[in-house]
UniProtKB/TrEMBL annotation:
Main location: membrane
Similarity comment text for this entry: Belongs to the CDS family.
Species: Pseudolactococcus plantarum
The protein's name: Phosphatidate cytidylyltransferase
Topology class, membrane: Multi-pass membrane protein
Localisation: Cell membrane
Upper classification of the organism: Bacteria, Bacillati, Bacillota, Bacilli, Lactobacillales
Amino acid sequence: MQRIITGVVAGAVFLGLAIVGGTPFQILVGLLTIIAMSELFKMRKIEILSFEGILAIFAALSLAMPTTQYFPKLGMDSHFTLFTLCLFIMMGIMVFTKGKYSFEDLGFPFLSAFYVGMGFQNLLAAQQSSLFILFLALFIVWATDSGAYFIGKKIGKTKLIPSVSPNKTVEGSLGGIVSAIVVAVLMVFLYPNKAPDINIFKLIVLVAVFSVVGQLGDLVESSLKRHFGVKDSGNILPGHGGILDRFDSLIFVFPIMHLLGLF
């Protein structure tokens, strides 16, 4: 019941603000970025309010938020200009720490910032481009998760990657792909005027790719949690875990959708 209530409330807030768009949705994306970064730092047992934590949050926000809108004089590449500035500041500080903070130590905070920032940047770009594409990504991921769970539970026998996620099966993974394709085709059938102008065969191939990429994103986060010895990335969503637990697949799916030209 707790899981259902949390899912309904959180889903309603997210979808409602996505439909409203503009500044309210940008604020939500900014908050999600900050929380996701804090979850990664907590897993790594690094204080988020440390100097590298604060700089990494600014780096992630510089990628996630529409910085060109806020700093037009920086040009179209303002995202990476600000990200690079944060990185160079941290590299400069490294010089004065007398070996206590090394070049290798920069890897975790700024790789985390890139991972989280690029994911949420593309989520925001999808919402600004087309609500249909945003909802398509959400329903592909949700259908993949549901299909993989129910089909895997029913007929799953062959373990997918047991060292990373012991409960996932090959049968479940394939069931998730089929479920995502069915849901996506139904969405295009019901809303043909809002759907991207692609033929049904290409749509099926793309949805299959997005479903696989979403599952990879989920496995990446499972691998991170296993590495750091935690069950969930956080506990902000009762019954669901943390923000990364809910957005791990989408963080991977949105950039690939952008790469393949859907927005």
